[in-house]
């Protein structure tokens, strides 16, 4: 593992090893997706790992696994290896490979029984011990994902105490909340359970990404791509080995680990740059320099506007941003402007930053806001839980009463099987 010089000290907190002068902590992750949604996003992370290896010559994903109670969902994946150690079917005896039907309690029991299958898949990976952290992924609304992910998070944390465990949770669409009471019930239980064990919970609101003019299949694929996209530069920056692609201020695993705490959201913005250098444009001209700054602020504004979950940035206790652009397009004035912008909207946050020189003809900004003190969407789901629980219990009582009435009405009718 290659180390670069770094001359910053990072605060020591939350059990993360203190970074020493001259040492850079690199960032590789093991991704575990649970349920249909989580498995498909894990599949996108596997694709991201292939892209990083092919285009940038770095390894950022040591392993990607999909865990499900439905065999059909595991079959439909593209990039995760197809063997049983990577596509892990749990609860086969209870579900016969047909899922849990949104019953998260059943999924939690199955995960407790079959957690060893997941641990076996993790530990037998050839590159697992290069991994710096875990990223677990699931939807809060489904059955398998929302029920198994808290259990898997707890088991993995107990087994690998030296590696942080982050959980990415995808919140339901609005129409799911309105048409299925189990959506609220599952989401609230999943959020509370995961937040009690994970080092950080990265929240993604499906509704923020939906495009009403696209087909459902294409739309879901695009949403998964957009969810994964902001992680690309953040993961690649600390793994770069080419000197020309190493920033003046390297953002590495130490910065990420010290930023990701509690409720977390992520954003990504992009500004296109001129790929052809025109002879009449002077690089030192104040107008050109102003344009570079404006491009950076435009990307930062897009990243904040399209955060994975709507929130008030003032509630963030920690934040980081990564600027990626051709080296000639980056300067200290731009870095300062971006820092001032983020500090203005998140005044209470401890902010870390980095730059990542790349050849591509675009300027991108990746933003993370963490240690959020208040998350309205989570509070909304928690507040609706009692009503949904009452509705669920009322439905169950009605079913039992109907069944009893039918049994009573059938008294005196002979049975052909007795």
Structural class based on helices, strands and sheet pairing: alpha/beta
Total helical segments:
13
Looking at the structure, the CATH topology of the largest domain is Rossmann fold
Biggest sheet strand line-up: 3-2-1-4-5-6-7-10-8-9
CATH class of the largest domain: Alpha Beta
Tally of extended strands?
A: 10
Looking at how many chains there are and whether they match, the oligomeric state comes to: single chain
Mean pLDDT value? 86
In total, how many domains does the architecture comprise?
2
CA distance, first residue to last residue: 72 Å
What's the CATH architecture name of the largest domain? 3-Layer(aba) Sandwich
Approximately how much beta-strand content do the residues carry?
15-25%
Unreliable stretches covering 5 or more consecutive residues:
1-24, 276-288
Computed CA radius of gyration, to the nearest angstrom: 24 Å
Question: Any overview of this molecule?
Answer:
- The structure is a single chain.
- The protein has 418 residues and is α/β, with parallel strands linked by helices.
- It folds into 2 domains: 29-228, 3-Layer(aba) Sandwich (Rossmann fold), CATH 3.40.50; 243-370, 60s Ribosomal Protein L30, Chain: A (2-Layer Sandwich).
- It is 44% helix and 17% strand.
- It has 13 helices and 10 strands.
- It has helices at 35-56, 71-75, 92-95, 104-123, 144-159, 174-179, 181-195, 216-228, 231-237, 253-259, 286-305, 332-345, 376-409; strands at 29-34, 61-68, 87-89, 133-139, 165-171, 200-205, 262-272, 318-325, 350-357, 362-370.
- It has a 10-stranded mixed sheet with strand order 3-2-1-4-5-6-7-10-8-9, with helices on both faces.
- Strand 4 (133-139), helix 5 (144-159) and strand 5 form a beta-alpha-beta unit.
- Helix 1 (35-56) crosses helix 8 (216-228) and helix 7 (181-195) crosses helix 13 (376-409).
- The chain is globular and about 90 Å long.
């Amino acid at each position: 593992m290659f180390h670069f010089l770094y001359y910053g000290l990072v605060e020591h907190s939350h059990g993360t090893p203190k970074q020493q002068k001259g040492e850079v902590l690199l960032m590789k992750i093991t991704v575990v997706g649970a349920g249909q949604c989580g498995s498909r996003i894990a599949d996108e992370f596997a694709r991201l790992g292939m892209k990083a290896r092919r285009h940038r010559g770095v390894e950022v994903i040591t392993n990607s696994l999909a865990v499900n109670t439905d065999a059909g969902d595991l079959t439909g994946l593209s990039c995760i290896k197809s063997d049983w150690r990577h596509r892990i079917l749990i609860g086969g005896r209870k579900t016969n490979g047909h899922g849990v039907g949104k019953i998260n309690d059943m999924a939690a029991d199955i995960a407790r029984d079959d957690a060893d299958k997941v641990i076996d898949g993790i530990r037998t990976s050839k590159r697992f011990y290069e991994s710096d952290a875990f990223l677990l992924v699931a939807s809060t609304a489904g059955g398998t994902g929302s029920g198994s992910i808290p259990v898997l998070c707890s088991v993995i944390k107990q087994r690998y105490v030296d590696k942080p465990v982050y959980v990415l949770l995808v919140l339901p669409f609005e129409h799911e909340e309105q048409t299925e009471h189990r959506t609220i019930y599952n989401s609230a239980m999943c959020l509370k359970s995961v937040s009690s064990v994970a080092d950080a919970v990265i929240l993604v609101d499906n509704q923020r990404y939906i495009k009403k003019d696209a087909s459902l299949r294409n739309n879901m694929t695009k949403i998964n791509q957009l969810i994964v996209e902001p992680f690309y530069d953040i993961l690649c920056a600390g793994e770069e080995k080419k000197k020309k692609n190493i920033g003046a201020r390297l953002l590495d695993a130490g910065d990420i680990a010290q930023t990701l705490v509690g409720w977390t959201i992520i954003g990504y913005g992009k500004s296109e740059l001129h790929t052809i250098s025109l002879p009449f444009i002077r690089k030192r001209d104040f107008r050109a320099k102003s344009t570079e700054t404006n491009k950076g602020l435009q990307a930062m504004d897009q990243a904040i506007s399209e955060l994975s979950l709507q929130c008030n940035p003032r509630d963030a206790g920690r934040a980081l941003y990564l600027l990626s652009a051709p080296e000639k397009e980056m300067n200290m004035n731009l870095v300062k402007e971006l820092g001032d912008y983020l500090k203005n909207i998140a005044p209470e946050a401890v902010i870390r930053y980095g730059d990542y020189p790349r050849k591509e003809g675009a300027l991108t900004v990746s933003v993370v806001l963490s240690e959020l003190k208040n998350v309205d969407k989570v509070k909304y789901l928690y507040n609706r839980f009692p009503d949904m629980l009452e509705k669920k219990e009322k439905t169950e009582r009605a079913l039992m009463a109907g069944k009893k009435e039918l049994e009573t009405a059938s008294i005196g009718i002979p049975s052909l099987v007795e």
